[in-house]
Amino acid sequence: MKGFRRRSDGTVAAMFEPEEVDIVVQFAAESAALADAARTGGQLLIDPALIRLLPDAYPDDPAASAEFRRYTTDGLAERKALNARIVIESLSRAGTGRVEVRLDDAGSAAWLRTITDIRLVLGARLGIVQDGDEGDIHDEGSALLRAVFDWLAFVQDSLVVALTPRSGRSRRESP
Predict the structure, then answer these.
(1) Cα(155)–Cα(167) distance, rounded to whole angstroms?
(2) Residue 154: partners with Cβ closer than 8 Å, 6 or more residues away
(3) pLDDT, tens digit, 9 for 90 and up, residues 13-50
(4) What is the pLDDT of residue 46?
(5) Rounded mean pLDDT of 51-78?
(6) Counting beta carbons within 10 angstroms of the beta carbon of residue 36, is it exposed (0 to 12), middle (13 to 18) or buried (19 or more)?
(7) For residue 167, what pLDDT is reported?
(8) Average model confidence (pLDDT) across the chain
(9) In what order do the strands lie in the sheet with 12-16?
C-alpha cells in the first residue's frame, strides 16, 4: 500500500494488497463484534478492549458513568459496528487480488473512525496506554499485533493527509 491520495473527482483512493485487505477485514470484523457485544453489556466491565472502545464518561463517578452508559451505549456501539461494516464492504467489493478503495466523505469518516477503534482495541490488547508506550511484546503474536498497530497508524495518517485541503498542508506534504 502506498497510502491514500486525493483524486480529481474529490474522492480519496488507495490500493491494498490482498494480505492488507485480509488484515483490515479481520480486525474491522473484530471491532464490529466487540461493538455488538457492548450492546449486551455483559463483557463491558471485564474486557479492556471494550472499555477502551466505550470508556467511562465520568471515571470518578461510577453511578454517573453507569447512567450515561445506559443512554448512550446502544447508539454508539451501533454506529461503531456500522462504520466497521462499511470498511469491510469497501474492501470486499472488488474480489481477489489488489483492491482499490475509493472513498467519498462519508466513507472516509467511517474508515477514520474504524481505524481508530481497531487501534484502540489493539492498544488495549498490547497494554499501550499513551503515545510512546511500546506495549507488552513478548512473542510473535504480540509482535505481529504491534506491527499491525503501527501500519494502521500509517494508513490513518495517509487518509488524514489526503483529506486535508491543499492550502492547509505544508510544502513537504503536498504531492
Answers:
(1) 22
(2) 3
(3) 999 999 999 999 999 999 999 988 887 765 556 788 88
(4) 75
(5) 88
(6) middle
(7) 59
(8) 88
(9) 5-6, 12-16, 99-103
Provide Rg for the chain, Cα atoms. Answer: 17
DSSP string over the chain? ----EE-TTS-EEEEE-HHHHHHHHHHHHHHHHHHHHHHH-SSTTT-HHHHHHS--SSTT-HHHHHHHHHHHHHHHHHHHHHHHHHHHHHHHTT-SS-EEEEE-HHHHHHHHHHHHHHHHHHHHHHT--STT------SHHHHHHHHHHHHHHHHHHHHHHHHS-GGGS-TTT--
Residue recorded with cell 480519496:
12
11 within 8 A of 103, measured Cβ to Cβ:
yes
Candidate ranges 36-50, 86-100, 134-148, 157-171; pick with highest mean pLDDT? 134-148
CA–CA dist 175, 166 (Å, integer): 9
C-alpha distances in Å from residue 72, one per residue of 40, 77, 79: 13, 8, 11
For the chain, domain boundaries: 5-167
What pLDDT is attached to residue 175? 47
Alpha carbon distance 119, 49 (integer Å): 10
